[in-house]
Amino acid sequence: MDDSSSPDCLFCKIVKGIIPSNFIYEDDTVVAFPDISPVAPVHFLIIPKQHFVSIMDVPVELIGLVHQATRDIVHQEGLATRGFRLVNNCGSDGGQVVQHVHWHLLAGRKLTWPPG
Ligand code: AMP
Ligand code: ZN
After folding, report:
1. Coil, strand, or helix at residue 26?
2. Which of 37, 87, 89, 101 to mutate to test the pocket of ligand 1 (most atoms within 8 A of CB)?
3. Which residues have a beta carbon within 5 Å of ligand 2, which is an ion?
4. CATH of region 10-107
5. Residue 74 CB partners (closer than 8 Å, separation 6+)
């Protein structure tokens, strides 16, 4: 059995349904679900099903699939017109808390720049 999940990983548990979440999107390689502590009116997390710690570990081909899924989600959620922000926190200085690569999709209000 091909199981690349990491037993103690929170997001692997969400992928497997061990920790409950409401997927707003799912395909063969990617899932997306609401962030439990939203920082914007729209705040989803987009993750590969397969466990990779950070963007530095993700195969380049998979990035394309995540990108394609992200565009589908943007259209599905009606975010294309007003726009959105896509954020990847990497490592400790980047503010990464969950060690399973993910992208924050933020929208629904005017987002400030630069971030803190
Ligand atoms: P990061 O700081 O980039 O690693 O972001 C991790 C994100 O995961 C944070 O925004 C958390 O609010 C979010 N998070 C933690 N636990 C859960 C959960 N069970 N379901 C959904 N989002 C979560
Ligand atoms: Zn994981």
Report:
1. strand
2. 37
3. 6, 9, 11-12, 51, 100
4. 3.30.428.10
5. 80, 84, 105
Q: What is the pLDDT of residues 51-88, one digit of tens each?
A: 999 999 999 999 999 999 999 999 999 999 999 999 99
Model pLDDT for residues 24-37, shown as the tens digit of each residue: 999 999 999 999 99
Q: Is 60 helix (H, G, I), strand (E, B) or coil?
A: helix
- Closest to 15 in 3D by CA, of 45, 37, 41: 45
The residues spanned by each domain of the chain are 10-107
Model pTM greater than 0.70? Answer: yes
